[in-house]
């Protein structure tokens, strides 16, 4: 008995032997600690069963809520009288299986097997399953599928596939009220064009454990509607039990697919419209370029002959009136030629054919040339121009003609907008990174954000009730494009009623190191 008791102690199995008067004859240590924890001193040979039971249930922690010690004792003695049945005992901290068997000549042998860990594992598994169910029961348009591998045609055991999810029955229509999926029906409702691909994915998961993520169509068995679903599926191995399960989650993505289709249709329409706009823009650019070339040839002749007449190069002593007419023709022709040249430049930029002719030159020289060209116009309105260049020896590598055109355009704009007697300041400074900033600031009427947008648009012209400004509206857009061709930028900073600053920046790479 001692050897058997020791072996049973190691296995956490209690053993007790009772005589025909229900007195304890023999027991092992596991019996005392498993069945009577905290009361081990009450367990000894000769003790009657009902005495031990009464002592045990006198402890409040050993009784179920709502039951008295007498109730619990009566229930236990009833089970004792019907010995021979298997029972499970659960308390707050332990569980054990009870098998009490009568023996010949009277008496009882009791075996008490500790199943605490198994019971805890079952509780954890049950709680996990309940949490999973609650999770999917509170999520919309998603179902979680779980099934054990078996030998059926669908590769699942006879229990089928259990489905979790509040919307799953309505979503897919192949699920019983008990939450079991009819797998064969599910396979049959998958769209014929997608079914073979789906079943191939299933075979790969079953044979090699390959995870799949697939979108497919299915025909709802209740509504007959064609819908879209996305399924992510995997296999789960349980080496301890030698079992394998197949899990997946399925989402109804019909609405998102419909939005994708609508978006794709809208994008296709936008792309078609954009293509038409590009074609119209190219046609416009080609038309302007062709017309500009056609106009420039006769204009050169008109300007040339007007210069000859105004300069009396043929037949001196021409009437003063004719000289005035010739000067008017010359002025109008030069203005028109300038407009045509700007249109040609704009067409080249839009076509991506504008190229830079780069040379090295002093910044001071190109600024002086621009101010010399503007000096007469500024003087006519009594406007002052203040030029400040911090480094008179600063050398740039850029397209000199285009930089000159930018400065003339910006200074010309300032001249047009500021009133007589106004002031313009031109400053050249270097930034911390070595970039060059040219700022042309005036004390004119300034602009609103809306007027700034107009100024940047080709052929856009800004005016107000106090100023009437002539021009084509191409100067600023061309100047900004020229700045960007150099890797720089042209920006406007203006407040209505407080003047305007146009800031031309060129990258440090454009500055030639001394």
How would you portray this structure in words?
With 514 residues, the protein is α+β, with helices and mostly antiparallel strands. It has helices spanning 2-10, 29-35, 49-57, 69-81, 116-137, 168-172, 183-189, 192-208, 254-310, 320-350, 363-380, 400-417, 449-456, 475-485; strands at 13-18, 24-27, 86-90, 95-102, 108-114, 142-148, 161-164, 180-181, 212-219, 226-238, 243-252, 359-362, 384-389, 395-398, 423-430, 436-442, 489-494, 500-506, 511-512. A hairpin with a 5-residue loop joins strand 1 (13-18) and strand 2 (24-27). Helix 3 packs antiparallel against helix 4, helix 9 (254-310) packs antiparallel against helix 10 and helix 11 (363-380) packs parallel to helix 12 (400-417). It starts with a helix and ends with a strand. Mean pLDDT is 84; it is low at 465-469.
The number of helical runs is 14
Which word captures the global form? elongated
User: Which blocks of ≥5 consecutive residues have pLDDT under 50?
Assistant: 465-469
Radius of gyration over all CA atoms, rounded? 49 Å
Strand line-up across the major sheet: 8-7-6-11-10-9
* N-to-C span: 107 Å
The computed structural class is: alpha+beta
